[in-house]
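User: Second chain of the day. Same drill as before.
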Amino acid sequence: MKLRVDLLRHGETTLSHTLRGSTDDDLTELGWQQMHQSIFLDQNSVHTKWDYIFSSPLKRCAQFAQSFSQHVSIPLLQDQRLQEIHFGDWEGISVQQIYTDSPELLANFWQYPTRFTPPNAEKYLDFQSRINQALHSIQQHMLASNSRSALVVTHGGVIKLLKCMALQQSLDDILKMTADLGQLNRFILDSETMQLELLEDVI
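Assistant: Same format as last time:
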């Protein structure tokens, strides 16, 4: 069975100039607008219909997901595993500052993120395992409720990871993937094989 899973990245936040990972910052007014424009055709109608909404519990995802869920009367489930990767000692610090302090480590991290982990940060292989578990739970919930489509409100790292999986790219290519603020990406999930297909980069 083919399941449609649309992933919406949160919009601009108060700390968008930093690596915020698990830092729980708020959406800016522009961030709300970016997400709204990706979902709504106008004030009352949406681009598409979903049976369920799943969301990261971090405010930059959860607040929009809660508002949208109430607006369209679609059930919402939060999942801790849909959070962004944790950047450890780099949390809340700008890339420019990290480059100033640790240029070699930053360069290695950008090129080989599975081999070079920021101090006290979550490893990308652990992040991949966590997101795979979340995806499996989404699949199980959709099958149990006879659902065919879901909206997942989440983070750039999650979307980039799933793009790597769908395109059968190395996990070291994750930082080369795109996931713009407020962007909606459409995937098809084969419920039997758990294989992902990327249908559209932007909706």
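The mean pLDDT is 95.

User: Great, on to the next one.
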